[in-house]
Design brief:
2 copies of one chain form a homodimer. Helices cover about 85% and strands about 0% of the residues of chain A. Chain A has helices at about 1-30, 35-75, 85-120, 125-160, 165-215, 225-265, 270-305, 310-340, 345-370, 375-380, 385-400, 400-420, 425-440, 445-465, 470-520, 530-575, 585-655, 660-700, 700-710. Chain A starts with a helix and ends with a helix. In chain A, about 70% of the residues are buried.
């Protein structure tokens, strides 16, 4: 077992190294010039606004967490959960909030420095600073993901191992409690992501409409007091929310794989190894990301004056490629060393996962990059007005769901069968879940190339508000454009992995209830041809993402309306010289909207699996999980790509000097329609899908017991 | 058996009576004044354009039909189909095309008469004429639905009955061939509905944008040469397409119920009765519709001068209520008389169906009528620009999927269990399919209150183009508003019934392959937890409606673009006095677009079930059917209600005198975005859902045999 102990410590080593590098990178960034006094003031205002929002958000979350802890406590009392789950849930949420704060802090400390670099030294150095800061964010993600999963695993393993009883029994407790940990992380991420998403888009839509369309101001014009809220939004939504989202996905995938490893190897001597492997592949991902970050940082810092958008794009993308290759290499040796030559199928499954993530990302590019036909056609259709443009944007978004769905299907079927799923379903699903872990193990690098976009966006905002030379803004816009492209791939990986993880989690649920229902004499047939309750569960599942989308974008619409009304009033007063504008009002308006907007979804996420379980039984819950996955996946890709393509169509028109033309106004309308789709509702889908699954697992024993008592 | 023969003849009697009334109604309308020479010219131009379009459409359809007939012939040769199927397929298509032509003919002969009545005698008489014509359309639907199903049934029953062999064997052939008949009807309806939908919306979007937004002309302004195409579109899409769609739904539901009756009662003396019952309930629906039409016609004709929108709306809605009540009454006696007291559960199931259709319609109203919060809020959000308005429209559309989904789930579960599905699955599904028949048996009346909207729309167009007093247009607009409300209910019934029919058809497929797969030693487990092929099938199914929507609204977008470019040119020339405008060019542009737009969907509909079957096996096909149903249902309701609410939000702003304001422009953008959603893609979903099911059934034996040979 001593080899095992070494393996159990490896993730901590990975976390420690990543932490040191993250601190070094942050220090490097902090040494740079923050710019003139006005720039610093604006940057500070953004930081203060972001912190105020996150504090407010944390307050609401704590209330939610307390309520859920009480419910969990009751469940513990009745024997439906283990005690440590209570702590696991809280720490899962705590880590998620923490990473949101850290990422926000890094980006708000970096934004004006990027502006200054863009002003003094041009694109290359601006990119260098933004990428370094983003890398620090990505590394912190790696630190937290490795540290928290490994810590909980080791503590629980030690705790339950003390009794010296059967390994399988110990690990049963361990993985059960880890699921609660995931729920905490996912639930907090859901708040961070969707609350942030509502905040940022309500501010953005409102500010843009009054500023650009009505008052003819430029984006982020200093005379538009809603601008600060818009920039705060980037930090709390696209940075803080995105990091929490990635953490949730990654940790969720690791723990699902552990859970399925437990089910697949329950009676095998490989049990402990199969549970350690997902953590070790993740550690390999952190190391691979570190190597890639250094290579890309080195390359970028050599560009200096002759950096271009296309150079930077291909450099960052090749970084992702390097990371993936290294993960494959490391996974090969890890699987070989830990599991042995007889289990190399797990390695093949993980290649499938990595490839799938990469391909989904590339298809995203195909549909959202202005180099390709869809976005070009959308921009072209601006000639016949905003409606045709929006319709085209929606049409291409829907079309874009086809290829990623095929990739997920193929990857799922491949991972399942290569892992021997045709003779052993559990083993096949362990393979599927490891594929999801491999896909997500590149997360630190994915965040590094994802987060610098919003930082650049902020930097541009500061340039505008500080009335710097328009050239500075142009430079940061280029950086933003690179960021948009690479962020698209990151989003593809997140939704692809969510689909695969949810499939595995659905099975985990099914396995978990299997023994129980057998004991109770409940026969659970997951056959929608024989039991209409299964079809009903699928139906409810398919509708849920529609309901959540409507709630989320509805909140954005309502809040944006309020921002518009307030902004009109303030801009009018400012133009008349009556006031200097009051940016804080906007932050208050959108903070309130964001808080209100997540309360109902937050309650529903916990209520739906329980209600469906009580009405339709355990089979209905499995169907619910799958239904949510299916339509959530399709809607997520549809919304992300519609929004992305509409955004880039607008940028294309601007680049071609179309600003101020009717085509440009049409494209601004399109961009604004796409905004809440791609940045509020779309990204929340992957968390929704998984939360429905893990909450179902968490409440499984309770629900099945009650259902059995009520109806049988 | 002599009682049986009487029952077999009853549908013909119903058809005959309906036919006579339809002829009388048409003659009544044709006696009315067609208006001045200019009005007649415009009406003729619309008729000629519509006919030209339908002829062109028919040509393409014939090519498709020939190709499919050849494929079917090969299948017959290899023993996968019966010979009469070839004829059944052709006649199914033929009836569908025929009803499209007839309905178009009635409405184009009526439009200017409604204009004239609105001019001379006001709202009451205009409504009277429009409703009488629409009733004729509805009755013709009843004639065709009863006549063709009864004729085929009797001919086949006689043909296979000659041999004097076992009733079950005879009826097996009969229902198999009837399925092919449905495919013909559905496939033709798909062309009529989506081709017409592309035509009408491309013309509408293009004409509106250039006319209203760019050139400041009013809707249907005579100076906008794209207007004729727009009015042609109403007749080929909203009238011809809608009628073909209703025929397909109704006939499809009858035949599915017959198919499931066969499966449920195969070994019972009730076999023949169970197969006749759906036709008889439908006949009851025709009689109920006739009664309601007379009551409503009587009421409307008494209104004369003091007709108002709200009076007319509640009158027509109460007519639907009367029809439903009468169907319930008739069904009670029919079930009692034919099946006996022991089978009254079928009656309860049919009440469930009727109620579900009615409720889905009412929920549609809730989300699209300007009296209620959603549409009012959308109109309100016009204050912050087109983007917020569109976003709100999409959000409410998504929200609106929730209640109808619950209704379908409840109705399905209710009909299933009340029919004893818990002990006999086949019986439960027969109940579900009879529920769909009952829901659709009100179709003649539903068409009567659906088709007068487009007629009124045309009448308004003629008023505008003939430069009549604006008051005339206002009168027809009111009629149009009433029509929009009642049409919403009709759409609700169509999609609700499609969902329920598809569920039944999925089961029919499963039953059909059951014996075959058993013989071949293929085990088909419809358990997405045990076989990833099932999940893959569901996944493909869920994506298909997204793909079709993108293809259809993409075609509209592209064609609208062309219309805009041409209209700009022509309007410019006309304003400069260089030309008088050439309306025919527009008809050519949109006809071509409509034709091109349906080719790929047309091929895919046949290819997908076969390809999925060969790759994923019969279990995958069942999953495909269900996946398509689930997301198709959600998308259909989302798109219909988003579009409806956006349309009515615009109308509300116009009614409140907002024309010309920025709010109004915003609402025009919203309406235009909603147009292809609600009138092109949305309505095609219900046909898509069923076509995927029936094509799967048709190719089942072929696919299962090949799959078995290839993979086992």
């Amino acid at each position: 077992m001593s080899g095992m102990i070494v393996l159990r410590i490896v993730p901590f080593i990975g976390a420690f190294i990543a932490l040191i590098l993250a601190v070094v990178f942050t220090k490097l960034v902090n040494k740079k010039n923050r710019g003139n006094k006005r720039m610093q003031e604006i940057s500070d205002a953004i930081y203060i606004g972001s912190r105020a929002y996150l504090n407010q958000q944390a307050r609401i979350m704590i209330i939610f967490f307390i309520v859920i802890e009480v419910l969990f406590f009751i469940m513990v009392k009745f024997g439906f959960l283990e005690y440590p789950s209570l702590l696991a849930f809280a720490t899962g949420g705590g880590f998620s909030i923490m990473i949101g704060y850290i990422a926000m802090w890094i980006s708000t400390r970096t934004n004006s420095r990027v502006t200054q670099a863009a002003k003094e030294k041009g694109l290359g150095e601006a990119m260098n600073i933004a990428f370094t800061a983003a890398s620090a964010s990505g590394l912190i993600l790696g630190v937290v993901a490795l540290f928290d999963t490994a810590l909980w695993f080791n503590v629980l393993f030690w705790w339950y191992g003390r009794s010296g009883s059967d390994l399988a029994v110990n690990l049963d407790h361990v993985v059960n409690i880890l699921v609660t940990f995931t729920i905490g992380a996912s639930f907090a991420a859901f708040f961070m992501r969707t609350g942030g998403g509502i905040f940022t888009k309500a501010a953005d839509m409102g500010a843009d409409y009054v500023g650009k369309v009505e008052s003819g101001l430029r984006e982020d014009d200093y005379r538009n007091p809603a601008t600060i809220a818009d920039n705060v939004g980037d930090n709390v939504g696209d940075v803080g929310g995105m990091n929490a989202d990635s953490l949730e996905s990654w940790v969720g995938a690791i723990i699902s794989a552990e859970f399925l490893g437990f089910l697949a190897f329950k009676d095998s001597p490989m049990l402990l190894k199969s549970i350690l492997l997902p953590m070790l592949i993740s550690t390999a991902g952190v190391f691979a990301s570190i190597v890639a970050i250094f290579i890309i940082k080195g390359t970028v810092s050599r560009y200096k004056q002759n950096a271009t958008v296309s150079k930077l794009t291909s450099t960052t993308l090749s970084g992702l490629f390097i990371t993936s290759l290294l993960v494959i290499l490391f996974s090969f040796f890890l699987t070989w060393y830990i599991m042995g030559a007889g289990y190399m199928y797990i390695f093949y499954a993980s290649i499938g996962g990595l490839l799938a993530g990469f391909l989904i990302g590339l298809f995203t590019l195909l549909y959202t990059d202005a180099k390709f036909r869809p976005t070009r056609n959308i921009a072209e259709s601006a000639k016949s007005g905003p409606a045709t443009l929006v319709v085209n944007g929606l049409a291409y978004g829907m079309e874009s769901t086809v290829l990623p769905a095929f990739i997920v299907i193929i990857s799922m079927v491949f991972s399942f069968y290569i892992s021997g799923g045709s003779s052993n379903v559990q083993m096949g699903l362990y393979g599927v879940s490891v594929a999801a872990v491999a896909m997500l193990s590149v997360s630190p690098f994915a965040i590094a190339i994802d987060v610098y976009g919003p930082i650049a966006d902020n930097a541009g905002g500061i340039a505008e508000m500080a009335e710097l030379d328009p050239e500075v803004r142009k430079t940061t816009d280029k950086l933003d454009a690179v960021g948009n492209t690479t962020a698209a791939i990151g989003k593809g990986i997140l939704i692809g992995s969510a689909a695969i993880t949810a499939i595995a989690l659905g099975q985990a649920y099914f396995s978990k209830i299997g023994l129980l229902t057998e004991k109770m004499g409940l026969s659970v047939i997951i056959d929608f041809m024989k039991d209409p309750k299964i079809l009903a569960g699928l139906f409810v599942g398919v509708i849920i993402p529609f309901l959540f989308t409507s709630l989320l974008i509805g909140s954005v619409g309502k809040a944006a309306n309020k921002v518009v009304i307030e902004a009109r009033k303030q801009i009018k007063d400012m133009m008349a010289g009556k006031s200097k504008g009051d940016p804080k009002t906007f932050i208050t308006i959108v903070t309130r909207a964001a808080q209100r907007g997540i309360i109902i979804p937050g309650i529903l996420i916990f209520a739906i699996p329980v209600v469906v379980g009580l009405l339709l039984g355990p089979g209905g819950v499995v169907a619910l999980i799958m239904g949510t996955l299916l339509s959530g996946f399709a809607l997520a890709i549809f919304m992300a790509n519609s929004g992305g393509a509409l955004d880039n169509a607008k940028k294309k028109i601007e680049e071609e000097g179309g600003s101020g033309t009717p085509e440009h106004s049409a494209s601004v309308v399109g961009d604004t329609v796409g905004d809440p789709l791609k940045d509020t509702a779309g990204p929340s889908m992957n968390i929704l899908i998984k939360l429905i699954s893990v909450v179902s697992i968490e409440t499984a024993v309770l629900v099945v017991t009650l259902y059995g008592k009520l109806f049988h």
